[in-house]
Specification:
The chain is of the alpha/beta class and about 450 residues long. The protein has 3 domains: about 110 residues, Gyrase A, domain 2 (2-Layer Sandwich); about 110 residues, Up-down Bundle (Four Helix Bundle (Hemerythrin (Met), subunit A)), CATH 1.20.120; about 160 residues, 3-Layer(aba) Sandwich (Rossmann fold), CATH 3.40.50. It is about 45% helix and about 15% strand. It contains 15 helices and 13 strands. It has a 7-stranded mixed sheet with strand order 3-4-5-6-2-1-7. Strands 9-10-8-11-12-13 form a 6-stranded mixed sheet, with helices on both faces. Strand 1 and strand 2 form a beta hairpin. The protein starts with a strand and ends in a 7-residue tail after the last helix.
Length: about 450
C-alpha cells in the first residue's frame, strides 16, 4: 500500500458535481502538479481550495474545489485529496486521466475502505457496514448498517471475547501455577456455570441475528398456486402497480415476475410464479418447474387458493409440496360465494384484490410470522450477513464442545483448546484475525470509488 490510488467516487453521469478521490503519500503532490490555484503542499489540513485542473499543455480542464485532508485524521489514515468537479462524464474522466498520467494508480474495487481497515481506522464489521449503507433499501436496513458503522457490533464481540479470555487465563493459571494459594481456583462446577451463560448469550445472538438479517436482505416471498387463482392480482395489489399481466386465460404467467414492497420498514422481495399444473406446453412446463424450484429457496411461501371453487387435486399437491415451508395459505376471492372446503385446510386467511384493504389480513399475517414490529423497534446490534453468522455458528460449535467436555469431566486442557478456538473464530468476525483471501473477496464487491 505504498502507492497512491485514485478513482471516481460519485456515480458517473450528468449531475451538479463529481468527485475524484486520491489516497496515498503522493496524493497532495500529484494534485498540486495539475492544480492552478494555491500551493496545496502548504495549505492547512481539512481545507477546501478553489482553482482549476489543468492538462499537460496547461489548458484548463475544469473549474474545481479541492479538499485536502492530511494523514492520519482521514478515512484511510493516509493523505486524501478530493477533487470536486462539475458533474459530467467527459470532464470527470478527463480529470481522472490526468491524475493517472501524473503518478496515481486506478483504485481496485473497495480499495479505499480496504486501506481504512488494514490501517486500523475501522474494523471488518464497520467495513461491511460502509457497503451496507450504500445498498440499503429500507430505513431499517440503514439503521442496522449505521449501528455497525458506529462500532456497536465490534464492542459486542470484543466484550464476549474478553469474557472468554478471562476464563482461558484462569484455566492457564490453574494449570501452570497450581502451587499458588492466592489464585482463584477454577473448578469444573464453576467453569460449567460460566460456560453455560456464554453459550446462552451466543445462541441468542445467532438466533436474533438470523431474524435481523431480514432488515438487510429482505424476505424472499414466493406466491404459488394453480392457474387463475389470483396470484398475479395479489402481486399487483401489493405493489400498487400492474406488474404482472392478468387475464382469465389459464397459464398467462409463464415466467417469474418480481417486485419489492416495504412492510413496516422491512423489504419484501415478492415473486409471482407460473401456475402449477400438469401441462403439455413446453414453455409453460418450464415455468412450472421454475416455480417448484423457487419454493425451496423462499423465506416465505404464499399459497393462493380460489375460495369460489372446491379444492382440486392440483391445490392439494401444492399444499403437500409446501407443508414444510414457512407459509401463509390465502383463500382468495373472498368477495364471491365460498365453495372451498375450509375444514380440510390448515389455518387460512381470507383475502381479495377488489378493494384497497382486501389484502390487509395477508399483510398482518406476514408481520406476525416474522415479528416485524419487534424487529423494527429493537436494538440494532446484531450480526448482519452470512459471513458473520456463519463464523458465529462455528464459534458456538466450539463453545458447545467445551460445555460438553466439562459435563463429561474431561481434562481441562481439552476445554481450554475449545475456548481458544471459539475466541479466535470470533476474532475473524471483527477482523482481528483474517486471511488475505477473505479480505480480497470481501472488498471486491465494493464499488471502485469507496
Amino acid at each position: 500500500m505504498t502507492d497512491t490510488i485514485v478513482a471516481i467516487s460519485t456515480a458517473l453521469g450528468v449531475g451538479a458535481i463529481s468527485i475524484v478521490r486520491l489516497s496515498g503519500k503522493e496524493a497532495i503532490n500529484i494534485v498540486n502538479k495539475i492544480f492552478k490555484g494555491k500551493d496545496l503542499t502548504k495549505v492547512n489540513t481539512h481545507t477546501i481550495n478553489y482553482g482549476y485542473i489543468i492538462d499537460e499543455n496547461e489548458e484548463i480542464v475544469d473549474e474545481v474545489l479541492v479538499s485536502v485532508m492530511k494523514s492520519p485524521k482521514t478515512f484511510t489514515t493516509e493523505d486524501i485529496v478530493e477533487i470536486n468537479c462539475h458533474g459530467g462524464i467527459i470532464a470527470t474522466n478527463k480529470v481522472l486521466e490526468i491524475c493517472l498520467n501524473n503518478g496515481a494508480r486506478l483504485a481496485e474495487a473497495g480499495e479505499f475502505t480496504k486501506r481504512a481497515f488494514l490501517n486500523g481506522r475501522i474494523d471488518l464489521t464497520e467495513s461491511e457496514a460502509v457497503m451496507d449503507i450504500i445498498e440499503s433499501k429500507s430505513e431499517e436496513s440503514r439503521k442496522l448498517a449505521i449501528s455497525q458503522l458506529k462500532g456497536n457490533l465490534y464492542n459486542l464481540i470484543e466484550s464476549f471475547r474478553t469474557k472468554l479470555l478471562n476464563l482461558i487465563s484462569s484455566i492457564a493459571v490453574n494449570i501452570d501455577y497450581p502451587e499458588y494459594y492466592d489464585i482463584e481456583v477454577i473448578t469444573l462446577e464453576k467453569l460449567t456455570k460460566e460456560l453455560k451463560k456464554l453459550q446462552l448469550e451466543l445462541k441468542n445472538l445467532i438466533k436474533e441475528s438470523e431474524n435481523t438479517k431480514l432488515l438487510k436482505t429482505g424476505i424472499k416471498t414466493v406466491i404459488v398456486g394453480k392457474p387463475n387463482v389470483g396470484k398475479s392480482s395479489i402481486l399487483n395489489t401489493l405493489l400498487h402497480e400492474d406488474k404482472a399481466i392478468v387475464t382469465d386465460i389459464a397459464g398467462t404467467t409463464r415466467d417469474i415476475v418480481e417486485g419489492e414492497i416495504l412492510l413496516d420498514g422491512i423489504l419484501l422481495n415478492i415473486i409471482d410464479t407460473a401456475g402449477i399444473r400438469s401441462t403439455q406446453d413446453i414453455v409453460e412446463k418450464l415455468g412450472v418447474d421454475k416455480s417448484l424450484t423457487l419454493i425451496n429457496d423462499a423465506d416465505l411461501v404464499i399459497v393462493v387458493l380460489n375460495g369460489h371453487e372446491k379444492l382440486s387435486s392440483e391445490d392439494k399437491e401444492i399444499l403437500e409440496k409446501t407443508k414444510d415451508k414457512l407459509r401463509v395459505i390465502v383463500v382468495n376471492k373472498s368477495d364471491l360465494d365460498q365453495n372451498i372446503e375450509l375444514e380440510e385446510l390448515p389455518t387460512t386467511i381470507l383475502c381479495n384484490t377488489t378493494t384497497k384493504e382486501g389484502l390487509s389480513p395477508l399483510k398482518e399475517k406476514i408481520k406476525e410470522l416474522f415479528n416485524l414490529e419487534k424487529i423494527a423497534t429493537k436494538d440494532y446490534t446484531y450480526l448482519s450477513n452470512t459471513r458473520q453468522i456463519s463464523l458465529a455458528k462455528q464459534a458456538y460449535k466450539s463453545l458447545l464442545s467445551a460445555v460438553e467436555a466439562t459435563a463429561n469431566k474431561e481434562h481441562i486442557d481439552l476445554i481450554e483448546i475449545d475456548l481458544r478456538e471459539c475466541f479466535d473464530i470470533l476474532g475473524e468476525i471483527i477482523g482481528i484475525t483474517y486471511s488475505d483471501e477473505v479480505i480480497d473477496n470481501l472488498f471486491k464487491n465494493f464499488c471502485v470509488g469507496k
